[in-house]
Design goal:
By secondary structure, the chain is α/β, with parallel strands linked by helices. The chain is 40% helix and 26% strand. The protein contains 4 helices and 5 strands, in the order E-E-E-H-E-H-E-H-H. It has a 5-stranded mixed β-sheet, sandwiched between helices. Could be a nuclease involved in processing of the 5'-end of pre-16S rRNA.
Length: 136
């Protein structure tokens, strides 16, 4: 469902944007690696934090997980994700969207049986989102 194919020479920063946190992942070639999370604030602060993370990771484009319903239609959360994507685009960031259905469930399965801090699931979901984008 990616809007454009991934370029293996581009470093992407993936975002799993939940109402409370944003999980991060970064690409190296065709592989995705977790890069932590942040607690969300105001939209303007979130945009600045994403841009700072992009600079830190030397990422040039963003991949955002788009939460669709099982029937493929956008969820309420998808509208919030698109609002962040729109704000990032206004700030000059190239933004791609990736269908993120079931990524949280899948990431949760991977983390079962071990303690996890709040936000670790968001980071693991960002890794899944980015890996799906890279494989599309």
């Amino acid at each position: 469902m990616a809007d454009t194919p991934a370029n293996p020479d581009t470093t992407y920063l993936a975002l799993d944007a939940s109402p409370k946190r944003i999980g991060f992942a970064v690409s190296y070639g065709r592989l995705a690696f977790g890069r932590g999370y942040l607690h969300r604030q105001k939209l303007q602060n979130d945009v600045a934090a994403v841009q700072a993370k992009m600079q830190q990771e030397e990422a040039t484009e963003v991949v955002m997980g788009l939460p669709l319903r099982t029937d493929g239609l956008p969820s309420k959360q998808a509208q919030r994700v698109r609002a962040l994507g729109h704000a990032l685009r206004q700030a000059g960031v190239t933004v791609h969207y990736q269908d993120e259905r079931f990524t949280t469930i899948s990431a949760d399965e991977d983390l079962k049986g071990r303690f996890r801090a709040k936000g670790e699931l968001d980071e693991a979901s960002a890794v899944r989102i980015l890996q799906l984008f890279l494989e599309d």
